[in-house]
Amino acid sequence: MTTVGFIGSGRIGGTVARLSVAAGYHVLMSNSRGPRTLTGLVDELGPLQRHLAGAQVVKAFNNIYYQHLLALGRPAGAPDRSYLPIAGDDAGARARAGAFLDAIGYGTVDAGPLEDSWRQEPGTPVYGAPYGPFSDPAGTPAGEAAVRAALEQATR
After folding, report:
1. Looking at residue 105, what is its pLDDT?
2. What is the CA radius of gyration of the chain?
3. What angle do CA 155, 131, 21 make, to 5 degrees?
4. Does domain 3-153 have CATH number 3.40.50.2020?
């Protein structure tokens, strides 16, 4: 069984965990409220924290409302499949994250390295809007072209 780990266990993290378990993954989660709240844990972990040293981070799920995330998953090839942007510094890690998203019902749009992940932050065109208003828990499917176009429209 493949293990996936998530930083954050709020509404999005909890939703992703549910989708992951349903897809057959073993899930590890963390809950942080900013780096200062992790100081004690990092000190306590000592040699366990070595496992994190080689971790490859891929940013995903931060641009979609948790209810839309739960509602919009579709199998590969479905005409109404939704896509999510992913960003990470390692191409192999992005590919593995893409395979994971595929397993839980989402296609991916490669948003490049982590330094470019600002394009999927609150206030950018890809944040929430492609999937419909938050007032509609069912959401609206957002295809690859729509997500790619929204990423390209982002400005600082």
Report:
1. 97
2. 16
3. 115
4. no
Q: What is this structure's pTM?
A: 0.81
Strand order in the sheet with 107-110: 58-59, 83-88, 107-110
* CB-CB contact of 101 with 86 (8 Å): yes
| Average pLDDT for 73-85 | 97
Q: Nearest-5° angle of CA 49, CA 51, CA 57?
A: 105
Q: What percent of the chain has pLDDT over 90?
A: 62
DSSP state of 79: T
Predicted pLDDT of residue 45: 41
Q: What tokens appear for 116 in the block? A: 């470019």
Which of helix, strand or coil describes residue 10? coil
